[in-house]
Amino acid sequence: NAGVTQTPKFQVLKTGQSMTLQCAQDMNHEYMSWYRQDPGMGLRLIHYSVGAGITDQGEVPNGYNVSRSTTEDFPLRLLSAAPSQTSVYFCASSPQGARNEQFFGPGTRLTVL
Amino acid sequence: RKEVEQDPGPFNVPEGATVAFNCTYSNSASQSFFWYRQDCRKEPKLLMSVYSSGNEDGRFTAQLNRASQYISLLIRDSKLSDSATYLCVAMWMDSSYKLIFGSGTRLLVRP
């Protein structure tokens, strides 16, 4: 099993550009989520999904969209990048939601100029 | 006030030392607690769950004090490989289950 994979590992964007961060898992987990991690702050939940076709907002959803067309994939779309979105983004999956161990991907380091 | 607070450290200890971290949480309705470990520029990984009665996993012991709303992590006989950031996590039920991460406590174990 590859676990949770994320692409790209690094990305630099200009303000106003859009892009999609990819996340995939091969563990057949129903629950998937996206977090951002900023210096001095804990991981903050952006969006999550409890299964294919179902998504919901987390703590900091503004400026991001998600979709979940399959169990395996959970892409995060930045609509119009802003410098405040410079962060490290982690995707995570879990067999039964927030109550269980979260398996994180290796992260995407995003810089918005 | 942050919902989950941790001393950022760093805690700088010699090999073989015992070190303890505390973490406080603000929501008394928190149901479950976890410690995750995060190596530099890597993803977080679950270290251990924290049970009401306290639990031990090798050199690591986790305790929960609901009255004072804090959890602790004790590491005995520290190894160089224990150097990492330790994230405290609380879970509670709002409209759905929510995980709230602390910003982490950095541990440096020196030879």
Low-confidence runs of chain B (pLDDT<50, min 5 residues)? Answer: none
Shape category of chain A? globular
Q: Mind describing the biggest β-sheet of chain B?
A: 6 strands, mixed
The strand count of chain B comes to 11
Radius of gyration of chain A: 13 Å
Uncertain regions spanning at least 5 consecutive residues of chain A: none
- Class by SSE composition of chain A: mainly beta
Summed up, the helix count of chain B is 0
- What percent of residues of chain B are in strands? over 45%
Mean pLDDT of chain A, to the nearest integer, reads: 95
- Output the structural class of chain B: mainly beta
* Fraction in helix of chain B: under 10%
Biggest sheet of chain A, in brief?
7 strands, mixed
Of all chain pairs, the largest interface belongs to: A-B, 21 and 23 residues
H/E element sequence of chain A: EEEEEEEEEEE
Shape of chain B: globular
Strand percentage of chain A lies at: over 45%
Output the radius of gyration of chain B: 14 Å
Task: Give an overview of the whole structure.
The complex is a heterodimer of chains A (113) and B (111). Chain A is 0% helix and 49% strand. Chain A has 113 residues and is an all-beta fold. In chain A, strands 2, 4, 5, 6, 9, 10 and 11 form a seven-stranded mixed β-sheet that branches. A four-stranded antiparallel β-sheet of chain A has the order 1-3-8-7, with no helix packed on it. In chain A, a hairpin with a 6-residue loop joins strand 4 (31-37) and strand 5. Chain B is mostly beta strands and 111 residues long. Chain B contains no helices and eleven strands. In chain B, the strands form two sheets. In chain B, strands 2, 4, 5, 9, 10 and 11 form a six-stranded mixed β-sheet that branches. In chain B, strand 4 and strand 5 (44-50) form a beta hairpin. Chains A and B meet through strand 5 of A and strand 4, strand 5 and strand 10 of B.
